[in-house]
Design a protein that fits this description.
Two copies of one chain form a homodimer. Chain A is α/β, with parallel strands linked by helices. Chain A contains 14 helices and six strands. The first copy, chain A, has two domains: about 5-95, Arc Repressor Mutant, subunit A (Orthogonal Bundle), CATH 1.10.10; about 105-235, Vaccinia Virus protein VP39 (Rossmann fold). Helices cover about 55% and strands about 15% of the residues of chain A. The longest helix of chain A has 24 residues, at about 150-175. At the A-B interface, helix 2, helix 3, helix 6, helix 7 and helix 8 of A face helix 2, helix 5, helix 6, helix 7 and helix 8 of B. Chains A, B: GO terms for molecular function: acetylserotonin O-methyltransferase activity; protein dimerization activity. Chains A, B: This is Acetylserotonin O-methyltransferase. Chains A, B: Keywords: Melatonin biosynthesis, Methyltransferase, S-adenosyl-L-methionine, Transferase.
Amino acid sequence: MCSSEELEYPQKLLDYQCGFLVSKTMFTACELGVFDLLHEVQEPIAATTIASRLSTSVDGMERLLDACVGLKLLKVELKNNEGHYSNTDVSTLYLVKSSPKTLYHMITYYSQTTYKLWHFLPEAIREGKSQYERGFGISSKEVFEAIYRSEEEMLKFLYHMDTIWTICGKDIIQAFDLSVFCSVYDLGGCTGGLAKHFVSTYNETTVTIMDLPSVVQTAKKKFVTDEEQRIHFLEGA
Amino acid sequence: MCSSEELEYPQKLLDYQCGFLVSKTMFTACELGVFDLLHEVQEPIAATTIASRLSTSVDGMERLLDACVGLKLLKVELKNNEGHYSNTDVSTLYLVKSSPKTLYHMITYYSQTTYKLWHFLPEAIREGKSQYERGFGISSKEVFEAIYRSEEEMLKFLYHMDTIWTICGKDIIQAFDLSVFCSVYDLGGCTGGLAKHFVSTYNETTVTIMDLPSVVQTAKKKFVTDEEQRIHFLEGA
């Protein structure tokens, strides 16, 4: 199962060990708005300019930018002996907040909520329960009460969920011929991310999203516009 | 710079995003003693047995074990329709605490200290300073005052540092012919991890480790035995 090379030097384990450093580097560049700024200016700019525009330390920003270059999230070129940074095409498409395919909301959710909760994975395995109490001081037994603990948090979670369907919704809907189903119920359908792919792929299908009342109300307000025909909601618990 | 495949589906970004889940899965299996128990029993055992022996929930342990199988840190085989788990050779060598090549101390340091500090990477970049205050409530300006905040914490850090040399010390020492240097000073030489590789590779060399008084005292007590000739210490600050 293990090659002698792996036994000699545990590269895979060291990669696993550093996984969180990679995650947080990408998350932080997103959260600080690095990709947004580089998209806005539309030309390579120096670390000092980026630090100044985003109100960060120069030293910290230089290190972050170079780590992003190492991860191929940014490109760098020398001008007057100073590194000037710009987005890669993938970053422009997936990490700029205003892009229709942005992962921004998913990334910030992972960074601010999931990462923190996973610090308590040993406790979660011991106790067999979620760690919202240790992570966020919320002792609710219902995990969705914890996730939806405020309107702001609900919105963050809904954007996070919506992003997942932006990435893989079309592939999932088109993997099978679902045209025989004229009336589809999406239990826990949230923001209608999947429903939108459904109605745009199958012209005859109507989707009814069933979710908690507060989710339905927010989804109607923020995610499903009036123009989106054939998507209906049903509140429940 | 980016392939069209990458533009179509951002696999690399999704891998980066999940990096911390991978880290914490491996860290947690180490911290809970999964690899140690499997090494001790020397035969594949069921999740229920592992959960019972390690005082964890069965559901949580089953998920953790299957994640470890996915990461190729464990093997699984079916006996009477129930999964029975065992260590891979790499896990036996590098993840069992008692192994001479164990990464255990580095992993627990990463899990309990570094992971937590890196939650505050955006703040670190903004402020250009370490985040021991947010992470551990320590407002010291000197980072080593924070790292060595108690004897227990110092010991954890020293074991962590020592592990690094266990993995790559020999390669570094042998990368150049250093035999012309008979007297070597290792500034911040910590536990003598590098020094040991030096004296075992070069028979004529004497190494003097210079470090903080408290580090030197602990290193002498726990890491450098009397038998290790040609390693000396010098306290300083």
